[in-house]
């Protein structure tokens, strides 16, 4: 029941509807009209990623920051710990990211005649996992940072997050591109691109990419989990 209430609250939020529903569809429209060489499934992935990153690192992190004081108080007087809150919010985010995917997919099918093929289900699974990954980052931002600070830093963080996903080695060359690609290898977005490229090309998926995709998510999220405080200091104690 609590999760359902939280989902309804988010869906009433105009910021969520604008930045994580309307803008991703707009991006698909732009890519469709400007990037004719880009496969439709990649257009879908880029548009959904924009929605997921915006949802996780901007809308979600600010929502957590605004509500966290209440949940820290609840954690002190009940058995509902802040880490219970973390897992509950992860479920809520999964539902919201699913809605983002479905909205963009329906727009692509209805208005741009995207064909429904099996690899869309594979892409859906990968995107949902990446959504949980970015949601974990957004949650830690929310419990660690004030809402005003999040307003300031969320956009640069979104840009950095996008930089970990863009396949630079496929669109350029040179020593700097090579260095950036090496740095990307410590983040799951690099392996997401490898997996999706294999799926689009109809090639066998490299299981090393699957293992590294899972491993990098785990290694990136584990430190974040320990950054979740048990209680939040009041402003008077700061």
TrEMBL record:
Key words, A-Z: Membrane, Transmembrane, Transmembrane helix
Transmembrane portions of the chain: 16-35, 41-60, 91-112, 124-142, 149-168, 210-228
Protein name per its UniProtKB record: ABC transporter
Organism whose genome encodes this protein: Bombilactobacillus apium
């Amino acid at each position: 029941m609590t999760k359902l209430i939280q989902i309804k609250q988010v869906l009433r939020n105009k910021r969520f509807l604008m930045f994580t529903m309307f803008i991703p569809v707009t991006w698909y429209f732009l890519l469709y009209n400007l990037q004719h060489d880009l496969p439709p499934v990649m257009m879908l992935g880029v548009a959904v990623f924009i929605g997921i990153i915006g949802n996780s690192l901007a809308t979600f992190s600010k929502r957590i920051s605004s509500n966290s004081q209440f949940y820290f108080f609840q954690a002190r007087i009940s058995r509902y710990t802040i880490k219970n809150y973390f897992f509950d919010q992860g479920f809520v985010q999964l539902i919201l990211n699913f809605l983002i995917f479905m909205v963009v997919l329906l727009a692509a099918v209805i208005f741009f005649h995207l064909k429904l093929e099996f690899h869309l289900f594979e892409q859906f699974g990968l995107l949902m996992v990446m959504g949980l990954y970015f949601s974990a980052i957004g949650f830690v931002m929310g419990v660690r940072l004030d809402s005003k600070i999040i307003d300031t830093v969320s956009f640069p963080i979104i840009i950095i997050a996008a930089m970990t996903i863009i396949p630079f080695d496929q669109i350029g060359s040179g020593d700097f591109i090579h260095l950036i690609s090496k740095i990307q290898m410590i983040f799951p977005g690099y392996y997401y691109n490898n997996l999706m490229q294999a799926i689009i090309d109809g090639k066998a998926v490299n299981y090393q990419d699957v293992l590294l995709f899972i491993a990098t998510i785990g290694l990136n999220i584990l430190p974040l989990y320990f950054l979740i405080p048990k209680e939040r200091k009041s402003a008077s104690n700061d």
